[in-house]
Amino acid sequence: MITVTGLFIYPVKSLGGISLSEADLGPRGFKYDREWLIVDKGHRFVTQREIARMALIKTTIDEERDVLILRLPEVNKELSIPLKASPEKETIKVTVWNDSALATVESDEVNAILSNFLRQELRLVRMAPGYKRRVDEHYAPDDDDIVGFADGFPFLIISDESLDELNERLEYPLPMNRFRPNITTHGGGPFAEDHWDKIQIGTVELALVKPCARCVITTIDQDCAEQGKEPLRTLANYRNQGGKILFGQNAIFKGSGNISVGDSVTVM
């Protein structure tokens, strides 16, 4: 039996993630996942690839207070961002890889504090209300297949056994947070996800459409922002395909509702 063992969202792209016991679905994937983005002066997205210190900023969704909380260590700052989108904020065009998207800009105060902590002039933006960023049509032909500020797909799925198999090859085991999945599973065996075309979890159907090519973010310790050579060095020995190191599967979805840890996974 295959079950869901973990659910994760990353409200601000490349900042700390949040582990959930259950996650609600919206039109772009899990609610609040990659809804915010940090951009540079040219309005281009910035991630841990350029600024490893982004890993140090932890996030929390406080629905009672109706805010997203960003916690900055060292300076002992806590920033509160309203969860309710405001159409009155400045709207700009931002770039994520080869895509352009409309986004609203958060407050000058928030941006000044983030810029100071990350040592570069930056702005925190949120995907504009109602804006639809299409998933690559080669993998998702339906106009309703949209995504937030994730690299390209609403979901990343990795089995626990895939990480276990990798860790057997490493001198020091690594946690799953190096790979920033949305859904983790157990019960199918190492790299079972490579062979799934479609799965169903409750009322949600997910199509696994593209292997995930991994980058240097996997080499950054998400607790201290220090960078090493693993796991890319080891993965290159047995997960290299066409010059890309593959680990995990990107997915699109149909359906609504929510997914909970412990839900069964049906391979279709």
Indicate the topology.
Elements: E1 3-9, E2 18-20, E3 22-26, E4 29-30, E5 36-39, E6 58-62, E7 67-72, E8 77-82, E9 91-96, E10 99-105, H1 108-118, E11 123-127, E12 155-159, H2 160-167, E13 183-186, E14 198-201, E15 204-213, H3 232-235, E16 240-241, E17 244-254, E18 258-260, E19 266-267
Parallel strand pairs: 12-13
Antiparallel strand pairs: 1-2, 1-13, 3-4, 3-18, 5-11, 6-7, 7-8, 9-10, 10-11, 12-17, 14-15, 14-19, 15-17, 16-17
Question: Any overview of this molecule?
Answer:
Helices cover 9% and strands 36% of the residues. With 268 residues, the protein is mainly β. The chain has a single domain (3-267), classed as PK beta-barrel domain-like (M1 Pyruvate Kinase, Domain 3, Beta Barrel). The protein is globular, with a radius of gyration of 18 Å. The relative contact order is 0.20. The mean pLDDT is 97.
Short structural description:
This protein is mostly beta strands. The protein contains 3 helices and 19 strands. A hairpin with a 2-residue loop joins strand 9 and strand 10.
What Rg do the Cα atoms give?
A: 18 Å
As a percent range, the share of strand residues is: 35-45%
Distance between the amino and carboxyl termini: 14 Å
> Quick one: overall form?
globular
Helical/strand content category: mainly beta
Q: Total helix count?
A: 3
The structural domain count equals 1
